[in-house]
Amino acid sequence: MDVQHNHKNQQEGDIESEWTDGMVTMMEKQESGLKEPLLLRRRTLNTTSQIAIVGSNVCPIESLDYEELIDGSHFVWFFNVKKCRFYEAFIAYAGCNIVLATAAAAICAYIAPAAAGSGIPEVKAYLNGVDAHSILAPSTLFVKIFGSIFGVSAGFVLGKEGPMVHTGACIASILGQGGSRKYHLTWTWLRYFKNDRDRRDLITCGAAAGVAAAFRAPVGGVLFALEEAASWWRSALLWRTFFTTAIVAVVLKAFIGFCRSGNCGLFGKGGLIMFDLSSTPTTYSSLDLIAVVVLGVMGGIFGSLFNFLLDKILRTYSIINERGAPFKIMLTMAVSLLTSCCSYGLPWLARCTPCPTGIKEECPTIGRSGNFKNFQCPPGHYNDLASLFLNTNDDAIRNLFSGGTEGEFHIATLFVFFVVVYCLALVTYGVAVPSGLFIPVILSGASYGRLVRRFLGSVTDLDAGLFALLGAASFLGGSMRMTVSVCVILLELTNDLYMLPLVMLVLLISKTVADSFNKGVYDQIVTMKGLPYMEAHAEPYMRNLVAGDVVSGPLVTFSGIEKVGNIMHALKLTGHNGFPVVDEPPLTEAPELCGLVLRTHLLILLKGKHFSKDRVRTREQIMKRFGAFDFAKAGSGKGLKLEDLEIGEEEMEMYVDLHPITNTSPYTVVETISLAKAAVLFRELGLRHLCVVPKAPWRPPIVGILTRHDFMPEHILSLYPHLSSHK
Amino acid sequence: MDVQHNHKNQQEGDIESEWTDGMVTMMEKQESGLKEPLLLRRRTLNTTSQIAIVGSNVCPIESLDYEELIDGSHFVWFFNVKKCRFYEAFIAYAGCNIVLATAAAAICAYIAPAAAGSGIPEVKAYLNGVDAHSILAPSTLFVKIFGSIFGVSAGFVLGKEGPMVHTGACIASILGQGGSRKYHLTWTWLRYFKNDRDRRDLITCGAAAGVAAAFRAPVGGVLFALEEAASWWRSALLWRTFFTTAIVAVVLKAFIGFCRSGNCGLFGKGGLIMFDLSSTPTTYSSLDLIAVVVLGVMGGIFGSLFNFLLDKILRTYSIINERGAPFKIMLTMAVSLLTSCCSYGLPWLARCTPCPTGIKEECPTIGRSGNFKNFQCPPGHYNDLASLFLNTNDDAIRNLFSGGTEGEFHIATLFVFFVVVYCLALVTYGVAVPSGLFIPVILSGASYGRLVRRFLGSVTDLDAGLFALLGAASFLGGSMRMTVSVCVILLELTNDLYMLPLVMLVLLISKTVADSFNKGVYDQIVTMKGLPYMEAHAEPYMRNLVAGDVVSGPLVTFSGIEKVGNIMHALKLTGHNGFPVVDEPPLTEAPELCGLVLRTHLLILLKGKHFSKDRVRTREQIMKRFGAFDFAKAGSGKGLKLEDLEIGEEEMEMYVDLHPITNTSPYTVVETISLAKAAVLFRELGLRHLCVVPKAPWRPPIVGILTRHDFMPEHILSLYPHLSSHK
């Protein structure tokens, strides 16, 4: 590095003239030969961090002396050199990217397919009560961590933020289920969390910790958990997430302090505020406000368009991905190649810009990050597109956000970068790699903001960096539809408190505009994945139905003391998770609802084999037999299965007392209650089963059980197709 | 002002020697005469804002020339002058304060007693479902605004933040009930908000707007509404409060821009960030963390002690206040006099400090605010206690928070200020004046923080201003028990993002410590006022009871078509707000629960006098007669009363069809449901009535109705006294 730097001054006079005239087309490059100046290539490599990290040792020859080449024929040499450099560097670059991408896709496709994508929709669904298959399993956690590292290193246009939220949730879940028996990591004291509510709380805290760690935004993490992740919120939860993110902040701060010496790679950089902008009180006129409103409206449109296109692309991808792991990997490789082509090829088309004078920063940048990548430009010049493409995402965002850099990026550069990142973000999300949406949306939003600033330059005097921030806010608002959390996250990212009113305004406008087109991106993915997510509000047509209208299927009830054979039969034939228990004469005067038993508890009870020959209550014996934690919630996929039971013919004819495991206080609704009200009850209390009791006393004591699926619009509309027209 | 300034240099050499020796005791002052140097007094007045605002025209003589007095006998003159100045200035100061305090107390005591105090507990109770008498009435709004202005001007140790929250809620409530008929301010379009839920949402937004305006903290406002004010939270509400506070921020910003010229008094000062601290990345060691932990623990203890003492004092005051308006006013005057004595008298005891060298600020301060009040000190010196006492609360906080001012305040000054403000805050809150707790708590916390910094000076190197901020956080956490909202409010007040981890840590510790002693101050006031606030969690002993155990009183039910006389009788005899309607044969085969009617709806129906001679359904006629908005929620205290109905003897024997106004989808629980579960249902859904239905089918179709009062611990423990031991 030092050697190359020393040579720069000698080189300067000779080749500057050829470079300063701007655009060098691909055609010209094709004409050149195969000779290769390694030092030049090394410089390119060293100033582009993605290559720098993965590919800095591609060529071992370093001793070739530069001076020999600078002679009279340097012009011919130059083009000779360029072509070979172009291809070899591209192969090194794209090759490394593809290898990393393939690694990410392979572990994802073969070990834990659930780890693909952001993970935020799944965490959101889990906190709503939908436990998708192995979404929080240890294998998912493993793939999420390493897949995300590989994916980000592979230069994809994707973020690490979503995966970190998912990672946080996975860790919380594993703690919540008392460690992992499979991997011999168990802690006894953790069994106190083995219930639905504590596990849900832990996972909410995990998601908050993920955001807090990803953006170094502790308060933003709390608000993200509140606004986006959690479906049920309690004041205790606010306190717990706050506690979690405070610990995250203190630990982060300690690590950053430890890494200040620079021996932790890129981690030590940036400090607690990742994109610290010099925050000075700014005034804005009403004309500025108009510009901001325009930015917000268009940001909302672009954001909802992003959601629309993403939905289409994901649906297309799912056809490919469903064909098996090799297809997933091939798709990932194709996208990786496309990404490499764009990020490597496009900077060659960009104009070299002379370094601005009177700035503190080094220009061109030496080292891994910075606003001014030299790329193929002569000394004293920089390639603005390379400064965005061939950089870490964090640095690209920092470059775009940085203030007082009006003329640093060409309008064409911004346009190309915006279009490419917007499109790459769309095609990247669906591949089998852990990928977050925050960073791509912020990147495209920031370049969009700077573009708008250029077009509205006559109207507004606000800083271009500020416009980049507002553009990012408008895209986040338009795509993810978060308000307070995005606002606080951006505040904690940039430390620009003075711009809070403008950020709030932009978020309001873009969210409002986008809401008139479609749903937020995470909601959309939840819907696309077919997860039965309960919305906070009942659909309007639900007001025209009563609870009794949608209770489906034949009802399977048990007696308080039931024959084992009947229970086994019911468990085999139905997939129900809850069964009502009805006490009948002679136990009671008339049949009456005793309560609800859960499938998992029935299995544990049957496994215990505490049966009796006659219909007698055996509460005491059963209570002696089972401890308090025997019925605790098992880890996902760890519970007993029906096949695990071995019950003989004789035992089938015996009786078992269900009273000890019956929940005698189930929530009930009368069958004539409005379906909308039942839905609100179901949602607000976070229920899994809701018993529907008859209104008329002469009927059997229970009409049916409402579950989550009974409230899904598809179910209701399949029963009452005419309602879809009212929808 | 300019004249006085010019004279300063001439005066300097003469009297400096007498002043620099420090403390001048009260005894000495008593010996002096009555002559009065107006120019000197004017300077004192002008550098102390409370006098400056209210008392700058006390003496009309301005032409007396100063030079005449500076002669050989100036030493004797000096002490002569001081005594008269001391008394006259005190009388002017205390007199103005008492007049203002009396005005505030008078309008409060005679027009709207509900406007006394912070208002946050009442708003919190309203959002929980408790509509305390005239708490959101227009008269309360009027008194809250003007009482708060008078109260703050009177120099009390109280804040404007709580009253601003209450003001916001009042304005929202008035908008929500369609304006005020009494004051001829009505808007037809506002009638769309005339229902419980929309009004609740509006008031939540109003509270958020209050905080946003008071602290210029829009995000803090949203979080305050979420964490402290609201009992029910929906994602739509998050969005609405965010919208509200964004508008507040934009409007505030516009006004601040407009007032930049300085012609809006103190409003234009400070900008959007009230106490802008120069925020620089700071590192802290583990020793610093220990100091912060100590600060947090002690802050938590002081905070909970504050709550404990406040409760005792409020209970004592209520004995005085209950005796009538004159007593309220006298109490207020006494507290005002005490406050004046402290804030005027104590700075005389303080040592004069030479101005620090090499600072940008003017010293001593000229004008209304600043760190260095000259008070009675010679030129080039300042009185540090006067800089805190004789200043606006905002400026005092700014002085304490300002960084790099280690030696600016003497340790004795900080101690005196801390003790006096802590005690004055306690005795001030209960008087009949709108008063907030935020500012006193922040003030005492900030001085406490600086004190701790002094004592732990050997352990920590952190800035004293930062310790003041952390001290304020610890007191807020210890007293109000808010976490995220206080954190964000402090962030938005100070723009000191780098200190976020420390602030979070302090808040966590102080809240945890304080929670082990007593409840948060607002919860405590709600309890003390006897408002039936529903806690988010059911008490543990509720698990041992079932819903049927606590249903109280004789149940009054109506038939679906009921005799008018019966309804009138029931309305007269009971105070119930909801009555179950039971359909009986021949309408149905057996008696069954039809639904619930509300008292207000019954009154409106009876007023309409649509009666029939026989038991027939008259749904269609009734539906024709009443429009959709006839049953809309009336403004508080605006609804029909039983006395308004004039129903003749003959009509009493007629029938009225209750079906059109019956809510046929009431939420129900079976009588055997655990009381804890019923309480969760009641609280989570924000219910007012919960029907308890029997388990056994042969019983009447309804057992009783649970209301808020049935879930109150007092009610339950009065029924089952033995439970109190388990509590």
TrEMBL record, chains A, B:
Record-linked Gene3D superfamilies: CBS-domain (3.10.580.10), Clc chloride channel (1.10.3080.10)
Domain CBS: start-end pairs: 661-725
Main location: membrane
Keyword hit for Transport: yes
Keywords: CBS domain, Chloride, Chloride channel, Ion channel, Ion transport, Membrane, Repeat, Transmembrane, Transmembrane helix, Transport, Voltage-gated channel
Matches recorded under SUPFAM superfamilies: CBS-domain pair, Clc chloride channel
Membrane topology recorded in Swiss-Prot or TrEMBL: Multi-pass membrane protein
GO cellular component: chloride channel complex; plant-type vacuole membrane
Pfam families: CBS (PF00571), Voltage_CLC (PF00654)
Transmembrane segments: 90-115, 135-158, 237-259, 290-310, 331-350, 411-443, 464-491, 497-514
GO molecular function: voltage-gated chloride channel activity
Domain of life where this protein originates: Eukaryota
Subcellular location: Membrane
CDD domains xrefs: CBS_pair_voltage-gated_CLC_euk_bac (cd04591)
Family affiliation: Belongs to the chloride channel (TC 2.A.49) family.
Protein name: Chloride channel protein
Organism: Acorus gramineus
